[in-house]
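Morning, I've got a small favour to ask if you have a moment. I owe you a coffee for this, so here goes:

…
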Amino acid sequence: MSSDRQPGQGATPKLSTPRAKREASQEKLLQLVTTEVRERLAQSLHNVVWLTLGMERQDYRVQRPWSATLAQPSQSPLPLAAGTRIVEVFERQELARQLLILGEPGAGKTTMMLELAEDLRQQAIADKAEPIPVLLSLSSWKNPKQPIFEWLVGELKGKYGIRQDLAQRWLKNNQLLPLLDGLDEVTSQHQQACAVALNTWLTGAINQRPSGVLICCRREEFEQVVRQPLNLYGAIYLQTLTVEQIKDYFAQFELQDVWQTVQQDEALQELLTRPLFLSMFGLVQTQGKFSLSDWGESTTSERKIEYLLDTYWDATITRELIINPNEKRRGILSKTYGTKPLPTRNAVRRALVFAAKMLEYESSTELLIEKMQPTALITQRQKWAYQLIGGLIGGLIAGLIIGLMRGLIYGLMRELIYWLSFGLIFALIFGLIIRPINGLIYGPIKGPINRLSFWLTRGPIKGLEPIESVEEISILISHERRREIMRSLRIWLIIGLIYGLIYGLIIGLIYGLIYGLIIGLIIGVSFGLTGGLTGGLTGGLKADIQTRIEPNQGMKNSVKNIVLVSAIALMMALSFKFLIEYLFASVVDSNDLSSLVANILVILISLSFFLAGGDALSQHLALRLVLAWNRYAPLRYDLLLNYCTERLLLQRIGGRYRFMHKLLQDHFAKMDLR
């Protein structure tokens, strides 16, 4: 659905005092929201249906907070005037910017939400006192005990990359306005609990309540699964298209003969009252893929929808792509692949089925390549291969680092060959033994209780360690970030001194207490400083908002982070080397000193590499290799997904991908992965 008026027209003007200046990080968020809203609207199938949806007020669906009046299902709906915009309803004083949108599958709920987001975005640009709209999907709410405010903070970090402390502050200050899609997409057994959690949030702690919110849900699920009113001030129901609107649509595209066919089948005419199916049917008809006889053989409404989705897939994958004549003459076949051969129909189908099943498992509607997890692996053989490849990569990297650092002391080639050989042996052990049990002994810093329960509930192979996303770092350090770096430095220094004391006592039992304590002190201070600085840098330099404007940007951030932090670490390492050699040459035996310096260099560079994203990068590479080997996702997965956007099967927003509609995602998720 798309109105014939541009978003922003008809919005109720607001009288408020603009702030002198919005925070720079908020301006960055506003730019991200602008890109998201515009790209999703531009790529929406509803945009080809130039018709205005009707709306009716159904306030009996909600329970006004602090009101003694209960919802009365017997109340009559109140139709709104033709051409009424969603923002006009949302801004009505009696609704207090708290609204529920209901509708049938494909009726245009999400598109209506996007149009509201566009109007609110324009208001936020014009008046800096206005909150920034943020679009989130309730489908990822999985824990019945998780408060909605806590979930919002996590989602804002996951989707927009907003630091959690910033997200909490902005929400509490009502500087963000959540637009929540997909209450019906929450796991069915948790939908009612989600509604309870929403009500608790809407009427709970005053510093966490939203000043405005929009929630979208399918009518049927709201009535049969949620089965309780939400603590909002109003609700609207999106009316289906009328027969006249459908007829006008076919006339607009000069498809009057198709309208004659549609009139012959009452079930088809009923289905086309929803904008999504009308736009799909229009594309299918132009490709000549729809057969009225085959349609008639589908006996249930579910089967008829599946037939339409099947024919839509067939029409999109076979239609001629729009390429300008000059590019055609140069042999360009698609905007994505250029003159290279296009992927086969089966390869595209398999990739889409895999993506849909992965999203279904994660209860998500958006795919980020860098956030793919080993839970996507299906068979035990694939999981063992992932462990082994990850171990090989990790072992080779460890061997390379150790060989290079010790080579600075003892001679490069001999040490490099030795430690690379050692790394290969270690990699086999690491991949086959250490990584499978790493979920059990992941370390106190990562949270032993969570790791233990993860390992116990899913097993050493089934419970593969999740790949943590790598965040962008910034060289601009705020006051809070400086404090975080200093806090990290203090913690690591304490850990380092304790470690050094224990190590020194052990050495002291062999070489004498004083000598051992000197060695331990050197190692402890070095370990604390290196750990503190590398940990503080990777933590303290993280950008306030992580922008993902291109596919797999998280892994590209990994490489940048590794180069930056490792360069800093290398300069620190050389400084340590010369300082220690100068200060302790007369105290420590020369052989011991050389070994000590080499070990400190190894610790420093290794910590910087893995803390800056090397561990996540090696795990991601292992996962991608296994997925490519099993033909689930090619190594250039981004190209295939971009190609699917050309085929009108996926939408791309920055570095994130989503199916054209949740119904299409569910349709592919039901297919066999073959």
